[in-house]
Amino acid sequence: AAMRSRAEVDATLQTAKLNPAELLPAVHCLSFGPQAGGGECCLLQLEPGLCAELEAGRSLVIRGEKDEQAVLCSKDKTYDMKIADTSNMLLFMPGCKTPEELNADPAFCNIFHSQIAGFSNNYWELRRCRPKLKKLRKLLMEDPYEGPDSQNDQNLTFSKYTTEDLLSLIQASEEEILHQLQVIDACKIEGYWRILEFDYEMKLLNHVTQLIDSESWPLSKVPLCACLEELGSLEPKEMIEHILLSYGRKYVDDAGEVYFEMNEDKICRAIAQMLLQNAVKFNLSEFEEVWQQSVPEGMKTRLDQLQGLALVDKSSRPETIFLLKVEDLPEDNQERFNSLFGIREKWTEVDITPYIKDLCAEKQTVGALLTKYARSSMLNGVKVYNSRRPIS
Fold it and tell me: What CATH number is given for 198-262 in this structure?
């Protein structure tokens, strides 16, 4: 394209009935460069925090397999990516001067000939979302660790996963993945992340609780060294330490000795799961009796230890209790509610909360979730929630 002269620019302004005195004296004449194809470039809108990450030289990663909606992850947060269309075409111009830059130098009354390097009518918008962590447990449960003598571990039929593998397969940031591995009590065995098979975990826990009982140690002060010494002949020492870490809090006393303060609620909960997993439904009063007899001496069982693990059916006669684990429910909000309303038509807020509180986004309350996905009504003076849509 021929370069425009100042006279041509002034003539164009006159034709357009524009007063040059109201405009900045500098003029950008735009032309499309040879490479200015659409679709070559993508725009990504970043919040200030993410922008600072990039400016500090850290990287952002897009994660997801072919059948998954892409997410973008920083070191510690996960964002949904959605395309936002814009009615104004966005032009990419290298070296383009903004009005502020032109204003700063009154000597500028030249003509700039700028080439457009690309254009776009949309951009990627990021929205903070919950990390998609359900798959993490699912992958590790393909091949739970059954102990050093297990035959299954000799046959390499299933994939095993390193941290790198999980980072490429799970749609969550590195910090969120590592935190979740702690939450689900995964442990690293020979460089691979594993979950202990439940019966093996119970066997280890049983060894530890029996030792605590026979040595009459207080639950708040279980010595690591003595546990490893006593139980090391029965199971690998790292497994003994792992079970202490899973069911206790590690601390060092003034003399530098390592102790564990055992978590009573978590131990009671695990024993309840062991009792419930072999029954479809269990008479509630019988269960409470057997459960209290099954936990280590000095521990007190309470139904609130079973939140998100088991559900009491007060409408049956006699009352019953059955296993319902929050981790077995769908990750998607609507699917989660459909599943819960399929199990029980009407829920009280107290009963449903343990099964939906993990769905709450940042600063979102359980009440707000219920308002969106459920309809409330009164039943015998108690507020209950049922589905907004028919459940097939």
Answer: 1.10.10
